[in-house]
């Protein structure tokens, strides 16, 4: 019980480390919370600084979900504990204790959790994201569709109630965090993915 509690706390604290804010500070870029969409995530970092800082941010956010899950797997954590670890890392990204509980929207961190849980799950979610992004060129819609399907992939590959429940909560929170994007999608004003960046 103590080990499980420490793993969950550590997952939340790691999730609370904002890759976007740190990368922007280190690379001399504006605070992503005050520029573009005001979201500390990879897509907004790309708007502000281009592909390189966005890629670093994406990697950092993904690792926040991946590393705690892999540690849990290495310690033979039960599905219930793995669910707690994954949810804690994701919530840490959304509501980071180190940054006034104002974090990102969670797609990359959720994807890291899914790869850490079982790589085919992560691969399926990533494939859906890439396909939708390629066809529709809207990052938020790619995230919403891929994460909406994520509980199905968890059910197909690892039919465990705690893990399916974890993913349902993650998906629900992610949709909630994207509510402004959903309004923009309905209005036809949502930003599209652009190849043009300030670093190109």
How would you describe this protein?
Mean pLDDT is 93; it is low at 195-200. With 200 residues, the protein is an all-alpha fold. Helix 5 (79-94) runs antiparallel to helix 6 (107-117) and helix 7 runs antiparallel to helix 8 (139-157). The protein is built from 10 helices and no strands. It has one domain.
Biggest β-sheet: count, sense, barrel? none
> H/E series, N to C?
HHHHHHHHHH
Strand content: under 5%
Report helical residue fraction.
over 70%
Characterize the overall form.
globular
Count of alpha and pi helical runs: 10
Low-confidence stretches: 195-200
Radius of gyration: 16 Å
Mean pLDDT comes to 93
Query: How many beta-strand elements?
Result: 0
Question: TL;DR?
Answer:
The protein contains 10 helices and no strands.
């Amino acid at each position: 019980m103590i080990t499980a509690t420490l793993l969950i706390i550590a997952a939340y604290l790691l999730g609370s480390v904002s890759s976007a804010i740190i990368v922007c500070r280190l690379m001399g870029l504006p605070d992503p919370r005050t520029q573009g969409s005001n979201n500390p995530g990879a897509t907004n970092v790309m708007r502000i600084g281009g592909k390189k800082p966005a890629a670093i941010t994406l990697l950092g956010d993904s690792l926040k979900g991946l590393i705690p899950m892999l540690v849990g797997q290495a310690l033979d954590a039960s599905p219930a504990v793995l669910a707690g670890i994954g949810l804690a890392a994701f919530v840490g990204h959304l509501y980071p204790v180190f940054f006034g509980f104002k974090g990102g929207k969670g797609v990359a961190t959720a994807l890291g959790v899914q790869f850490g849980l079982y790589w085919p799950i992560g691969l399926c979610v990533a494939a859906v994201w890439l396909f939708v992004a390629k066809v529709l060129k809207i990052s938020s819609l790619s995230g919403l569709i891929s994460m909406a399907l994520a509980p199905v992939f968890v059910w197909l590959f690892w039919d465990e109630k705690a893990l399916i429940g974890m993913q349902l909560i993650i998906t629900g929170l992610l949709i909630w965090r994207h509510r402004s994007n959903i309004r923009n999608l309905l209005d036809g004003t949502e930003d599209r993915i652009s190849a043009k960046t300030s670093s190109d």
